[in-house]
Design goal:
Blueprint (H helix, E strand, L loop, with lengths): L10 H18 L3 E5 L4 H14 L4 E5 L7 H14 L2 E4 L3 H10 L7 H23 L1 E4 L4 H6 L20 H11 L3 H4 L13 H5 L3 H12 L4 H8 L3 H13 L18
Parallel strand pairs: 1-2, 1-4, 2-3
GO biological process, one term: NAD+ biosynthetic process
Catalytic activity: deamido-NAD(+) + NH4(+) + ATP = AMP + diphosphate + NAD(+) + H(+)
InterPro entries: NAD/GMP_synthase, NAD_synthase, NH(3)-dep_NAD(+)_synth, Rossmann-like_a/b/a_fold
Length: 265
Amino acid sequence: MVVKALHTITEKDVDEIVDFIRGVVKRTGCKGIVMGVSGGLDSAVTAKLCADAIGPDNVLGIFMPSVLTPREDRDHTEEMSRSWNIGYEVVNVQPAIEAFTKTLASDVRAPLERGNISARCRMIVLYNRAKKLNYLVAGTSNRSEYMMGYFTKFGDGAYDIGPIIDLYKTQVWQVAEIIGVPKKVIEKVPTAGLWEGQTDEEEMGITYRHLDIILNGMSFGLSDEQIAKDAAIDISKVSEIRCTVSKMGHKRMQAYRPDICFNDP
């Protein structure tokens, strides 16, 4: 068995995602969707899909900058929000980040730890706004990030609906082309903005193109040897990715609880 090529996204696939979003909002009785917008690909695609599903008047994008946020990101979020007519707000989360960092000073030593605090501060903003408006919170994680655990638990990993969670990053690029995300956003280097100059691919040690080939092969039950041979990727990198996916499994599941039924009939 060889590695099966990733499914190429079509307009029909996009329509199914849009229908899914519309159906969830209707089923829950909520009035709309609120989400964080960063100026990056994933949030842009998610925002446009939500706007197409329930109308731009029912979508609110909140840009939540910190001291590490480039001005370019704000410019891009403003341009897309204006072009797509979705609601747009700016909430500066830097004071909240500083307050938590000061309180937890002895436990916050690395950029990653500060990044987790930033993500959780943004989650608080989104759910506070969602509660006031009776909106759902939309997440912007893709399948590649999800499988690698490349998100913050109860931060950007906290949401009510994940429109692109089943799409690999390379497929998100395809969706972006179909729905008309600006080229300059599509071509931006993916980054979580955890520290100055940080990029997703450098931090993970692999390009999304190669990562998605490996993850896709794993989903079909192929061995490391098969994936490495068929995709022309070093087997040590395949094994490393498999190990990471396994180690990060706890981030993809609900809390552990005892299998004891005291109160069930």
